[in-house]
Amino acid sequence: MFKKGLSTLIIVSIFSMSFAHVGLAQTPPSFSESITLRASPQTPKPGQSVTFTAESFSFDLNTTLITWEVNGVKKLEGIGERYFTLEGQSANSKTIVTVVAGNADASFIIQPSTVDLIWQADSYTPPFFKGKAQFPYQGNVVVTAIPDIRVGNKPVDRKKLVYRWQYDGKLINDASGYGKDTITVTGDIVIKNINISVSVSTSDGSQIATQSLNLTPVQPSVIFYAQSPLYGTLYNRALSTQGSLEQEEISLRAVPYNFSTDFRGGTPTLSFVWSINGTDLNTSESTLLLRRPNGTTSGKTQVGVEVSSIPNILQSESQNILINYETPTQ
Question: pTM of this prediction?
C-alpha cells in the first residue's frame, strides 16, 4: 500500500510542476507605437498651405524626436515638433509628407486638383444685349462644374467623376452622383443670397476637388424703347425717364430684363399693365401707341407700365416716362 500511495503522489507532483511551468511562460501583451497624421485642409486648392498635426495615443510625442520629410527630403526635426506647415503646391502636383516619431511613421499625399463653377441664369434679355443675364428673385440658375483632376498626369473625363452638390450647405441627393456635373436650382421666396458648392472626386476617392459659388438675386428691370414700323424695336437707343414727341404719335415698347419668362415665344408668363397720368389702360401688350391729342402743340403726359411675372410673385417692376409734346415737325 505504501508503494501505491507513493506512485500517486509522484504523479500529482509532476502534473503540478508542469502546470506551474506553463504559468511562468505567460507574458503581458505588448502595444506597438502608432502615429496618426492629420491635414488641414484635407483637400487643399492649388497654392493653399496645409498644416499637418501628428497625434498618438500609444506614446508621448512631446518627449519624442519627430522628423518631417517632404518627398523624402528632411524639412523639420526636433523633440515635440508635432506641427508642420507645407507651402501651397501647384495644381495636380503630387507631394508626399511623412512624419517619423520613434518607431512609428505616417504619410499623407497632397495632390491639389481644381474645379471651376460657371452659371447661367434662365432669365430674359433682349436681342443684341452684350451683358450677362442675371439671376432674379425666385429665378432658375444652371450651374456647371468643370474639374481638372488628373491620374498619372492624364486628365480624367468629367463624366467619369463623382459629384456631391450642396445648396446652402444641404446635400442635394437627386442632383449628386456619377457624371452629374450640372445642377439647376431655384431661388427661395425669401430674398437672400444662395450658396452652391460641389465636391468632385475620382471613383476611388483618391483625389478630390471642391469649389463654392455665392449668388445674389437681383430685382428685374424694365426699359422703354421706341418701336419703329420699319425697323422694329430700336434697341440701340433706350429712352430715359423723359422723352419728346415731335411727331403725331410714338409707339413705346416696355422691354423686361432678367425676368424668368419664355418671352421669346410660347405661352406668355408676364403681365403688362399700362397707365396714362395714373389711369390704368385696358391693354396687356408689351407695346403702347401714344398719339398727340388733337390740336395740342405743347403739354406733357405721364406714361407708366408695371411688368409682373405671373408664376413668380417677387418678379415685378414698374417704370415711368414723361412725354413732352413739342411743335410737330413738318
Answer: 0.75
Per-position b or e across 31-42, b if 16+ CB within 10 A of its CB: eeeebebebeee
Strands 104-110 and 95-101: antiparallel
Q: What is the pLDDT of residue 297?
A: 65
Cα separation, 254 vs 317, whole angstroms:
11
Is residue 258 within 8 Å of residue 218, measured between CB atoms?
yes
| Vertex 167: Cα angle to 201 and 257 (nearest 5) | 120
Q: State residue 272 phi and psi, 5-degree precision.
A: -115, 120
Helix, strand or coil, per DSSP, at residue 277:
coil
The amino acid present at 289, given as its one-letter code, is L
Q: Which cell numbers in the block locate residue 108?
A: 499623407
pLDDT in tens, 118-174: 999 999 999 889 999 999 999 999 999 999 998 878 899 999 999 999 999 999 999
Q: What is the pLDDT of residue 292?
A: 79
The DSSP letter of residue 122 is -
Q: Burial level of 22, CB count in 10 A (0-12/13-18/19+)?
A: exposed
Instruction: Report residue 22 as a C-alpha cell.
Output: 506553463
Cα 93 to its chain centre, rounded Å, is 24
Low-confidence ranges of the chain (pLDDT < 50): 1-31
- Give the count of beta carbons closer than 10 Å to the beta carbon of residue 260: 25
